[in-house]
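Rather than argue in generalities, we reproduce a single protein record, letters for residues, whole numbers for local backbone shapes, just as it appears below:
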Amino acid sequence: MDKLKLKASQIKVVAFDVDGVLTNGEIIYNDKGEEIKIFNAKDGHGMFSLSKKGFITAIITARTSIIVEKRAKDLEILHVYQGAKNKILAIQDLMTIYKLDYSQIAYIGDDIPDICILEKAGLAFCPNDAVDEVKKICHFVLSKSGGRGAVREMTDFLLAAKEEYLLTKALEA
């Protein structure tokens, strides 16, 4: 098992930024001033699959939106941190709740406010359209863009690594 898959097999918490990760980064308002977000169904299935396979899932975003709450509920995301201007505090909260360390955290972000987590996470992911400063510090620059399959690419990798690790352990027993 290669080094990154081994790291992936140790992940317990998977956390996601929203704008630019779960969406393509556009912020759209209708004529009533209501915010509109477009989410990718395949990304959503990947997120839902993580929860079903025992991963602790979280959304961490600096913005606040009713739409994010609804999406999280639909996907059975366990923790939602909105209005998180200092995102590392949300990760530290999760680590305290579950008695974990940074090596057990996977995070996907795309912009400067995500760097505080990405530089400490056991596995750091970003969409291929992330800012250069983020790309430089991530373990994985995914082939897909934010809101266009990057999250599914990440979740598929994590699920496959966990499955491979469990299979290897079973064969060793």
The mean pLDDT is 94. The chain has seven helices and eight strands.
